Amino acid sequence: MPSTLPDGDPAPADGRLPEGTAGRSAGRDFSLYVHIPFCAVRCGYCDFNTYTAHELGGGASQTTYAATVSQELVFAGQTLQESGVKSRQLSTVFFGGGTPTLLPAEDLARVLATAKEVWGLAPNAEVTTEANPDSVTPESLKVLRDAGFTRISFGMQSAVPHVLKVLDRTHRPENVGIMVQAAKDLGLSVSVDLIYGTPGESLEDWRTSLETALSYQPDHISAYSLIVEPGTKLAAQMRRGEVPPLDEDDHAEKYELADAMLAAAGYSWYEVSNWSRTPEDRSEHNLAYWRGNDWWGAGPGAHSHIGGTRFWNVKHPSAYQTRIDGGVSPAAARETPDEDARYLEDLMLRVRISEGLPLSGLRDDARRRVAGLIADGLVEPGPALGAQGEKRLVLTLKGRLLADGVVRTLADF
């Protein structure tokens, strides 16, 4: 079942944000995340807040979901205004899940239209939806494009049938290429998501998946190492010895292969798990997270971040719909991290991106450890950015493999 929500302070029924939030949000870009919690089948590795039809029970419906989440967007606009947060156009919008394209394309278009009415879209705003290649058609993709979607992120995961079987992925592998081409023909930007390190996946299996993904010539490729979370089907299979445990050395070897093959094909890494053909092909929405910008998360279990205040919605779609129908905030709890927590979070996020970690943002004790990280081949000076030529640190390939260790070194206070 999906993971539990974090602890926090109770959120008020009117959704009003704490005093000081508005001032801290000034000057930040603003994004929207819309969570679609529905899946046709629960994948064995998945720990996301998603539900199949038989898990939903009463009180929640895919049919009415677009109307429900649209109500939250209207509530969000009012809440931000009443909290004194300056209205900003949306720089990015991202529909994730779950499988957003299990809903009719017209429903996704309706939600996007509501977001436009509430906030508007900034010029050249990026609007993305995740998609299972079996849950879209050229016709539905055209509806999305005409509604204002600019980008489709396809869940490919692997091109090898026995690997997909372990992951409980049910899409037809050949459909990925067909739908990628259909999206490209419509002028949509395309990303494909891959997972490496699945039990039973050989290095040659992984090479096959990379070669297949590259043959589609997408604009963007994400490659994530498999993480097995407690409570998932795959975790239980490992516990029973039905599949072998994960191997960190295997993950490292596969990451190095991915980086080499993607670089040779003209893709550049811009975040530890993400590569793009050009800077314009990067996921601006994900960069908004890594840069610590503001976003509103709509839907059950969705998390928001406004001016340093974090809050998250109730998890189950039935509880979420009950709150929305009652005209009260769907937020379950919230928190405003203290200075140390914000510093650690900033380290964890910014060190992962290729634009680097600003030296000016490091505390004195962390700066003293930089020389050792450079000597160990984990970081290197990056290009100076900005009008003032701000100096930055960038992870090396070795550092990307050991990014968590780099953060621990810099955050040891």
Automatic annotation (TrEMBL):
Residue ranges annotated for the Radical SAM core domain, each copy included: 24-268
GO molecular function, a single term: metal ion binding
Coiled coil: none
GO biological process, any: porphyrin-containing compound biosynthetic process
Start and end residues of each stretch annotated as Disordered: 1-21
InterPro entries: Aldolase_TIM, Coproporphyrinogen-III_oxidase, Elp3/MiaA/NifB-like_rSAM, HemW-like, rSAM, rSAM_sf
Superkingdom of the organism of origin: Bacteria
Locations listed in the record: Cytoplasm
Major localization listed first in the record, in broad terms: cytoplasm
Transmembrane feature ranges: none
Pfam families (alphabetical): Radical_SAM
UniProtKB keywords: 4Fe-4S, Chaperone, Cytoplasm, Heme, Iron, Iron-sulfur, Metal-binding, S-adenosyl-L-methionine
GO cellular component: cytoplasm
PANTHER family: COPROPORPHYRINIGEN III OXIDASE, RADICAL S-ADENOSYL METHIONINE DOMAIN-CONTAINING PROTEIN 1, MITOCHONDRIAL
Biological role stated in the UniProt entry: Probably acts as a heme chaperone, transferring heme to an unknown acceptor. Binds one molecule of heme per monomer, possibly covalently. Binds 1 [4Fe-4S] cluster. The cluster is coordinated with 3 cysteines and an exchangeable S-adenosyl-L-methionine.
Similarity comment text for this entry: Belongs to the anaerobic coproporphyrinogen-III oxidase family. HemW subfamily.
Protein name, UniProt field: Heme chaperone HemW
